[in-house]
Every structure is written in C-alpha cells, then in structure tokens.
Design a protein that fits this description.
The protein has about 500 residues and is an alpha+beta fold. The chain has three domains: about 100 residues, no CATH class; about 110 residues, no CATH class; about 180 residues, 2-enoyl-CoA Hydratase, Chain A, domain 1 (Alpha-Beta Complex), CATH 3.90.226.10. It contains 14 helices and 25 strands. Strands 2, 3, 6, 7, 10, 11 and 12 form a seven-stranded antiparallel sheet that branches. The protein has a six-stranded mixed sheet with strand order 14-15-16-20-21-25, sandwiched between helices. It is globular, with a radius of gyration of 24 Å. The protein starts with a helix and ends with a helix.
Amino acid sequence: MFEDFDQFFNIIRDFSNQPKLRKLVTGFDVLAELEALRPKIEYVESFGDFISILRIGTFLLLDTHARMIQSTNQSFFRLGQATIDTSAISTVFRNYLATRSNIGVGGMLMTFYHDGKYYNHFRYRFTNRYTNEEITLSNFRLVKYNGICVDDHIKNLLTTRRGFSWHIAWDNRHRKHFSKRFTIGNNSCFTAKYNERLYTICLDSVNQFIYGVFPREIRDSIANTWDPCDRNKRNDRWNVIYFEDYQVLYIYLSQMFPQEEGEELLQAIKEAGRGKTIEKIIIDVRDNRGGSDFMWHDLLSVIIKDTLKANVRLGFNYNENMRHVLKNNYVNITDDFSLYRTEYIDLLNNKKMFVLEVERAIAPNSNSLLHEGNIYIFQNEFSYSASTSFTAFARQFPQIISVGVPTGNISGFGVGPVVFQLNHSKYTFQMNIDIDLSVGQTPADLFQDTPEIVVFPTLEEQFFLINMFPPDSRYSECFLRNFDPLFRHIVIEQRHRWSD
C-alpha cells in the first residue's frame, strides 16, 4: 500500500501543475496535504479503506476532472503511461464498494453561496420531538455547522471529503474556498440566522420538517407576473430564440454536444437568424455540462463573418517523466516533440515548464450568418469543462464577451483529462496535466474562470430564482424577458441606456 501511495504522490507531483498555481493563489498546499495522508495507511483495515485514502487524495487536487475511474464505459483517450489494465477497473471499484459499509453522509437541506455567505431557501418547519417546540424558517442564512463557523467547516472538507472536486471552489473576491453545493446533513446541528435572530437546530432531535413551501411574501410579490411563465416546463437540450424587439439572437445549450448531435442545433441557428437584423448574439452556457470543444467551434462558424485566430499556450511540468509522456505522445497531442519549448513562467514564480503554443483558427461556414456585432457568452459557477474553454477563447477577441460570475475552478483550454493506474491496487484515476497560459496578467488570472463582465445577482434575485425556477426550467423566453439578471443587464438595460 505504501508503495502504491508513493507512486500516486509522485504521479501528482510530476504531472499535475495545478498544485503550484493553487498554492500561489490560495495558499492551499496540495502536496503537503497529500504527504499528511500517508501515515493514515498504518490504520488501514481493508482494501476499501486504502482506496478511500486514494480517493481523498484525488479530491485534494480540486481539479474539476480529477476522479476515480469506475468502469471501462468511461471514455478516456489520453494515457499518462504506456498501458492501462482496463480489465481491472470495474473489479477494483466493485471490491471497494463491497468493503465500504457507509460511503458519505446523506444530505437534507441544500444551501447556496452568495457574496461570501451561505443561505438556505424555501420554507421549513422543524418540530422538536421532546419539547414539541416548532420553529419555522424561510430563506435563512447558515451561520454555524456542527458548532463551528461554516468557513472553518469548508476548510475541513478540503482534507476529508470524498466527492466531486468541482463542488469546492475558490472565491478570489473574499479570498477563501467555498462549496457550491453545501448540504446540511442528517444527524447534524446547525445555527441559522433568520429575522435577526439565531436558531440552533439539531436534526437528530427533529421528527418533522417540511420544505418546499414558498414563503407567502415571495408568492405575493410575483402574483401579477407569474402567469406568463410555466415553471413546470423543463428546458430542451438546446434552445434558439430570436427577440425581434431587441434584435437579439439567443442560443442556449445544456452541454457541448458531439458533432453529430449538434447538427440540428446548428441548423436551427441558421434558420432563426437568416434574413433577420441581429444586433447581438447571446450564447448561454450556464449550467453547461461540458463535452466536445468541436461543438462551440462549429457554433461560432455558423455565426461569424471573419476567421478567428487564437494563440493557445499550454504549460506542462518540466521533468523527465513528463518529457517521456510527451515525447512518446501517450496523451495524443502531437507527434512532433520539437514543438514543445522550454520556458520560465513569470506568473508562476519563474517555474520551468514545457510550453506548447498552437494557433486555433475558426473560419466562417459557407452558410454563416456573417454576424459582425458583439457575441456574448453567459456563464455561471456551474459552467464546466469545454464550456470554460469557450469562455477562455472569448478573452482573445473584442467581439466575443463573456458575462456572468467566476466558476472558482481552474479552467480554460486543455488537452482533457489524462488517465493513470497504480501498479498494485490498480486504482485508476484521471486528472489534468496542463494549464492554460494563453491570457493572464496575474497568477489568479491563470484560473481562467472570471468573465470579462462580472454580474453578480443580488441576494433577493438569488432567492427568487432558486425558489421559483429550478435550473432545468430556466432559459425560456419568458424567463429571459422577465427574470434573468444577465439578459436584463446585457440586453434590456443597455437598450434603455442607449435610448435615453
């Protein structure tokens, strides 16, 4: 086990360059935390215990793509080593599950993060089984969790949690890590602030809580505007809308579809925009689950008039193991190793790196809309993977403008996750091995997560949106016209300012 763990540590040290950037920007030392995990192997009693340690180590990277590979159904095209024993992947995961009596703690109450604080939404009634005391709370602020302030609890999660690493992100405004989906768990105690009073509630002493009841003041405030929107209607996988009064073409896509699946969307864009006067185009990748970069390449090609050329600079750790992987092209980037230059990166304290610089060009399609005006990309904290490559691309062109809130994750261009496997346990995991150096003036800029126009919804808007519109029922024409902060900022308010 120690030998496998040391191999795991060395792989991360040699191939992942995110720990250096994360320590420089946030102070969180991934490698030191991994070293602190090693002594825990002494207390391992089962195979599952050891895999749990490795999974925590994988989570510690806070790399949005870092995770244990659980089955051979998961596509991986880039290997960090010559071969992978694919037959062992499912067996390892099944054996891991068989030795784990309890994986994780179930959650009960979801929170959301806003301006450095955590809030719960909807309306809840808690009844104490011993005293019959009832407490009703709605839209409350979470102050403490299990007796400690929430920020300290999040720090604890950094070194103990198993789960998806993109749930934990970095808030550069408030200089701290935060959780995008922090859940108040079963059998926990929390302190809530509501109407300027503090309430401490222990869920193991509660025999009833009712949630999902909208507060009366919210229902009443929207009574006159609710009818036009059907909140029960779920989003399609994509949507194309032309707003004639604003001369805006709006495009929503839930993921970056493989090329063959995106053809229908591309055709709809051409039909919706053909012969129309288009002042602005909006491409909405909020809550986008990522996928293929080719989707947004093709999407732009049916919109633009002139070819877009971007210089993409990818940085890789400089060491012999990385040289071997790149030279033998295990990661399927280029057969010509001479294209990698050796550079010292100022923004990373003159770190020595292999740097690959390539030109990425997108030419207009023969049936393009030939749009010359601004193209806005809407993003939020849940924009993921290929959708953040898209927003990174936008930063190189004045015509394409990203709008929204930072993701809090290291984002941007990349070759995609690379797969490694440990020699003995056959624990198989993926992570990123490159970093986007294309644009940036400060180390924090290398996160490549912050849009050019930052629009934070107000707390009142956040409560309204979460209470009234589940994420999968947003992005309709009615929602955009009446309730969307980004559409209002970029389309409605700008039009009003110009008309004034």
